[in-house]
Design goal:
Two copies of one chain form a homodimer.
Chain A: H1 12-21, E1 27-30, E2 37-40, H2 41-57, E3 66-70, H3 75-86, E4 90-93, H4 100-110, E5 112-118, H5 122-129, E6 137-141, H6 147-153, E7 158-161, H7 162-166, E8 183-188, E9 198-202, H8 203-214, E10 226-229, H9 241-248, E11 251-254, H10 261-271, E12 275-278, H11 280-292, E13 302-305, H12 312-322, E14 325-330, E15 340-341, H13 354-357, E16 368-372, E17 387-392, E18 411-412, E19 415-424, E20 430-435, E21 440-442, E22 445-447, H14 449-457, E23 462-472, E24 476-485, H15 493-500, E25 512-515, H16 529-537, E26 544-545
Parallel strand pairs in A: 1-11, 3-4, 3-5, 4-8, 5-6, 6-7, 10-11, 10-12, 12-13, 13-14, 24-25
Antiparallel strand pairs in A: 1-2, 8-9, 14-15, 16-17, 17-19, 18-19, 19-20, 21-22, 23-24, 25-26
Amino acid sequence: MRSTMMDAPLQVSRILEHGATVHGSAEVVTWTGAEPRRTTYAEVARTAARLAHALRDECGVTGDERVATFMWNNTEHLVAYFAVPSMGAVLHTLNIRLFPEQLAYIANHAEDRVVLVDGTLIPLLARVIGEMVTVRHVVVVGGGDPAPLLAAAGDRIAVHHWDALLADRPAVYDWPESDERDAAALCYTSGTTGHPKGVAYSHRSIYLHSLQICMPEAFGLDATSRELVIVPMFHAMAWGLPYAAFTSGASLLMPDRFLQAAPIAEMIAAERPTMAAAVPTIWTDLLAHLDTHDVDVSGLREVVVGGSACPPALMHAFGERHGVEVIHAWGMTETSPLGSVARPPAGVTGEDSWRYRYTQGRVPAGVAARIVGPDGEVLPADGTSVGELEVQGPWVTARYLGDETPDGEKFRDGWLRTGDVGTLSADGYITLTDRSKDVIKSGGEWISSVELENALMAHPAVLEACVVGVPDERWHERPLATVVLREGASATPEELREFLAGSVARWQLPERWAFIEAVPKTSVGKFDKKVVRTRYADGALAVHTVTVV
Amino acid sequence: MRSTMMDAPLQVSRILEHGATVHGSAEVVTWTGAEPRRTTYAEVARTAARLAHALRDECGVTGDERVATFMWNNTEHLVAYFAVPSMGAVLHTLNIRLFPEQLAYIANHAEDRVVLVDGTLIPLLARVIGEMVTVRHVVVVGGGDPAPLLAAAGDRIAVHHWDALLADRPAVYDWPESDERDAAALCYTSGTTGHPKGVAYSHRSIYLHSLQICMPEAFGLDATSRELVIVPMFHAMAWGLPYAAFTSGASLLMPDRFLQAAPIAEMIAAERPTMAAAVPTIWTDLLAHLDTHDVDVSGLREVVVGGSACPPALMHAFGERHGVEVIHAWGMTETSPLGSVARPPAGVTGEDSWRYRYTQGRVPAGVAARIVGPDGEVLPADGTSVGELEVQGPWVTARYLGDETPDGEKFRDGWLRTGDVGTLSADGYITLTDRSKDVIKSGGEWISSVELENALMAHPAVLEACVVGVPDERWHERPLATVVLREGASATPEELREFLAGSVARWQLPERWAFIEAVPKTSVGKFDKKVVRTRYADGALAVHTVTVV
C-alpha cells in the first residue's frame, strides 16, 4: 500500500528557506579581530541567491558542476554552503591545510570549476592553482591582490571579486527541485597513506544529519542557541553545524582566521555562545588562557570535542574551573560526521557520569554500530569483546568517490569499517582504544597496543612506551614493547613483564622488548609506529626476548 | 553527480532496533489503577517479534495487509505500533470513540484483516464487528469474555488470546527491508461531514517526524525524558510520541483507560514524567484536581496541549500555581500531526512571551506554511493578512486514501488546505482564529466571526454572541450577529454596533442583528452555526437591520 504522504524531497534549499523565513532574524557573526561583522539568516539567503545568479551567469556553472571553497569560517563561506547545493551544483570544501600536491589532486579529482577564496589565503592558493587544471574561475572574498593567482594559472582562469560579482543581482533565486540522493557537497579525507579519498554527501544525508544534530542527545540546538563554530568549515562540513543552525534557528558565531586562544576568548566574552565545537588542541590552548585571564564564559554551557580523543584532565578542568561541560563526540568525514556523542545515561550524574563521558558515547537513531572481530564475525555488545567498529546509516558513506564498488578494506557488507578498534557495551556505549592498523593480531585475537602502552607507562621507571605488532611464525603477530626509561632509572624486561601482568591478561604479555632513547614521532607529535616497525624489520633494534616457561 | 552515501531506508524497524539496543533499558510503564506494569524497550522489541510471528503464522498476515488496533494506551498497543509496520504490514489505529457506522466504514475501507482489542473494549467492538466484513482474526489483550464478538461475527472470525498466541514464539524477527514510501500506518480523520477520510503515513514520514519531535523546538526528548502519553494512541498516532520515544531513548508512561484526573495525578506523582501530552479538556480537569489535592508534580516541566486551542487562563494557572509550563502546539491527522509549536523567540521571556505562547507557534524545518487569501493568492507573512493556512512537507498528506487525485477542496498545488484561517507573522508565528467554513467572505475580504463574537461578548449586556455569514447581494456575504442578552440587561443593535466599532474595522460591522434566547449548540457544546444559518434562511429569526449612512 502506497502512503498518501507528500513526496517532498529532502534538500538543502529547504533548510535555507526555513532558516531565512521562520528564523530570518537569527544572527550570523564573523569575527574580524576588531568589530565583528553581523548579518541575519534572511540576509544570508538573499546573498546566496545573488551568488547563485553570479555563478550561473558569470562563471557558467550548470548542472552538478563543482564549486570549491578555500576559506575560513565566515559569512561568505556560509553563503556558499547554501547557494552552491541549492542551485544544484556541488560544494567542494578544500582543506587549506593539505599538502599542495594533495590539494591539486583533490581539485582535479573533483573537477572543480570555480574556487571561492578568502583574500588572505591567496598566497596559499597561488602555490597550487597552476596544478588545478579544471578551474576556470576564482572569486576573491575581501581584499587581497589576485596577481599571484594570475601569475600561476595564466589566462586559464578569470578572477572575480565577490562584492562586484554579486552587486545588482536578484536577491531571490528559483531553487530547482533536486533528487535528494544527488550529491550536494564533497569532502576529501586527509588520509596519511595514499591519495585523499572523496565522500559525496547527498541533499538527503545533509538534511537528516541536520535534524539529528539538533536533537538533545546530540547538540540540543534551538532558536535560543548560539553556536561558536571553531571546527573549520573545510573539515567534515564543520560537523554539520551550519546546516543544523538554519534547521533550528540557532545563531552562528564564526572566528574567521582568528583561531588563537586570545581572540576566541574575546569572542566568547563578547558574543556569549551557548555551545562551541572544536578539536582538543583548541580547548587545551583556551583552557590555559582562561586559567590566566579574567574572561566571562558564563554564557557557555557546553563545548563539543571531536576529531581525536579528549584528555580527561581537560574535561575536568573546564567543568571544575570554568563551569563548562565538555562533551565528547566521535565521527569521521565518512560519517557526515556525527557518529556518537558521550552523554551519560538517564539518572547518572556527578562522579558516576565520568565513565560514560570518557567513552566515545552512543550512536543516535540514524547510525547503527557493531563490533567485528579479526575473522569478520560480529562480536557481542558486552563491553569487553574487542573488534573493529563498523557503522551504517543514511549519512554514512557507502564507498569513495570514483570507486565503482566499495573498497573491501574500508567497507564490509554495506557497513563502513571505521578503522577504529574498541568495544561496545550492552547499553550502547562505544569505547575506542586503537586504530585497527595499530592493533596486534595474535592467534585470532586482538591485543590493544594502546592498553599495553598505558599500562607500561604507569611503571615508575618508564618515561614512554610504544608497542607495535611484529611478525610471529606461530601467532601471526606478537607485541614488541619499546621502552624509554626515565633518566637514572633501570628495569629489566622480566620486571616490566611481571608489572604488566598485574593489569593485562597473560597471553597478551610481550615476549620481545627493546630499550630505546626516544620514541620516533610524526610531525604532529604522535608515536610513529611505522618507523618502529621498520627499525625492527631492519634489525636496527637491540631486542631482548623473554623466554616464557 | 550521485552521492556516495548509503541507501539506508528510513523505516520503523530501524527505530525499533535502535530503541531496543542503544536504549534497551528505557522504561515502559502502563497504569493499571493499582500496581503499574513495567517493561523495557528491549522487552518490547522481543514481544514485537513474537507478535509479528503470530500475525504471520497464525493470522496469515502477508504483504501490506492491515492490522487494526482497538485499544487504550498500553504496552501491548506499543508493541503493535512497532511489530505491524516492521513486518511490512500496515497498522490501522481504530478510534474507539467514532460512531459505530463510522467504525465499520473505516475498517471496511481499509480492509482490516485482524483487530487487536483490549479485553475491556470487547463490548464496544462487539457492536460493530458484525459489519467489519473483511476482519478474519480478533486478538484479545488481557481478560474479557469474547463471546459477544463470536455472537456478532459468527465463524467469519477466529478469536485468539494475546498471551497464548505469543507464547513460545521466537523473540527475534528478521524484519524485511521496506520501501520507505510505502504505508506503515493508517489513521482516519473524524470529519463531521461525510465519511471519515484515511491518511496513510509512510515509514519515511514516521521516521522524519520522529526526529523532529525530539528536537528542542518541538518536545526536546532524550534519554532523560519521561513522556506521559495521555493523547490516545488511536488519535493521530499519539502525536508521534511512541516512535519519538524509541528514537530518543525517552521512557514512556501510559495511562491505559484511567483518564480521569485522579489516576492521572496519582501517576504523575508516582512515575514523575518530565513531559506530558493531551488535549485541553484533560488539563482542565487535572488543574481542578491539583488545585484541591496535594499532588507532587515537581518532576513535570512541560505539558504539550494540542487538538484545540488552549484557554490562556489554563496556561497561566498551570505555570503560576504548579510550576508547569503549558506549551501550545498545532497539528492535524493530515500532518502526522506536528505542524507547529508555540515557543517564544530567543531572548523573549516572562510577560512578553505570552503573545507568542498564545499563538499556534512556528513550523519546524520539515513543514512549510503559507497563508492564502479568498481568491487563491498567497498573502504576505505580515501578521495581519488573514487567509487559510496551507502547509507542505514530507510528513503532510498529499491526498486521502483511495482518492486517485487530491480533492481540490482540501489540497491546492501540492499544499494541504488546513481549513484553518488566520495570519502568519514575519517571524513565522501562526495565529489561527477561525475554521474556513465559519469565516465570512465579504467583498473579496475575510471577516473573522470569532473576532466579532469575542468583541461582542466583552459588552456587559451580552451573555453570548454567535456571528455567521449570510448571503448578501452586493458583498456576497455579510455578518449576522445573534445575541443572547444577560438576564435583566438591555441593548439595541445600534448600541452594540457602536461598541464593536471600538475594536473592529468599520467595514466589518454587522448590519443584521437578532436577539435570541440561546445559541444552538452541538453535542460537544460548540456553537452550531449550521443551525443558526438555517434559521436565518428559513426566516425563523427576527432580524433588525441597522441602516448604515
